[in-house]
Amino acid sequence: MTMYMTATLKELTRKRVFLVTLILTLIFIVLFAFGVRELTGPSGLTPISSAERLLNSMVMLVLGLFFSQFLAAFFVLFTTMGTVTGEQESGLLLAVAARPIPRWKLYLAKWLGHAVWIAAYSAVLFVAVVWTVRSQTGIPLLMDEVLRSFGLFLWMPLLLLSLTMLGSVYLPMLGNGICSALLYGFALFSGLIEGVASYGDSHPAVGKFVLLTGLILPTDSVYRRSLYELVGGGDWAGLAISDMGPFSIASVPSNAFLLYSVLYAAVLLLLGCRAFSRKDL
User: Fold this and answer.
1) Is the N or C terminus of the chain more exposed, i.e. has fewer CB atoms within 10 Å?
2) CA 192 to CA 261: how far, in whole Å?
3) Confidence class of residue 234 from pLDDT cuts 50, 70 and 90?
């Protein structure tokens, strides 16, 4: 099984999309660091106040992590949408599945192989954004809160990985990519709608809509809980992100919902293993 995990890693690094993603990610980090320095530093001869500097730091932190989770999600989509059907069409899957190993173990090995790279990529994004804002602005962040946020940030793309892997068993590569991207965008859109609706007396249907999309794909809910933990939970810093328009956190996912996300991923993996075991190669 370890051999298949290693093979998955090597296969991923050979894809051109992997190199392109790394280059674009480096450009994003450089531009983000430049933007943080310009926005939070002194402007000309007029120094900014400490409160304004802190608010700018919070805005850059929220925006940086928002686009980071966006990049992590599309890294998952572009690298895993053809994991099963793509290899089946090329004939590679038939040669690999002929080895004396249960198919469900092969499926899990592929999932773990992709998960390692996805988690590493997401970790680089998270550390780069948080370290950049912290080093240039001095925004107060506690280590235990950062670690909790870090773990949840890594968990978000792994949820999407479980979905795309399952979709790759049933759908062709392009169809799986489109379907997974639409579901991810749907969940992201619902979170933005909830942030906008938090400014007034929102209709009860909005809350039901957000809950339903969170149950279908809990990626955005996990991301919002990660952001909530990073800025101090229920402390004063958490209040700052309640007034950021569509990026606001109107409701914080509970621990029970995080448990649901774990069960959600487990069920998708179980369904994927079962479907792959029965798939006609």
Assistant:
1) N
2) 20
3) very low
Looking at per-residue pLDDT, the higher value among 227 and 97 belongs to 227
Q: Which amino acid is at 121?
A: Y
The whole-number pLDDT of residue 95 equals 57
Closest CA to 29 of 118, 113, 136: 136
Mean pLDDT (the chain) is: 81
Q: How far is CA 126 from the centre of its chain?
A: 10
79 in Cβ contact with 22 (< 8 Å)? no
Alpha-carbon distance of 93 to 280, in angstroms, equals: 11
Q: What is the pLDDT of residues 11-27, one digit of tens each?
A: 777 777 778 888 989 99
For 17-76, give the DSSP string.
Answer: HHHHHHHHHHHHHHHHHHHHHHHHS-BTTBPPPHHHHHHHHHHHHHHHHHHHHHHHHHHH
pTM of the model: 0.88
C-alpha 202/C-alpha 148 separation (Å) is 30
DSSP annotation string for 91-130: THHHHHHTSSS-HHHHHHHHHHHHHHHHHHHHHHHHHHHH
The C-alpha angle with vertex 259 and arms to 256 and 261, in degrees rounded to 5, equals 115
Domain boundaries, the chain: 9-278
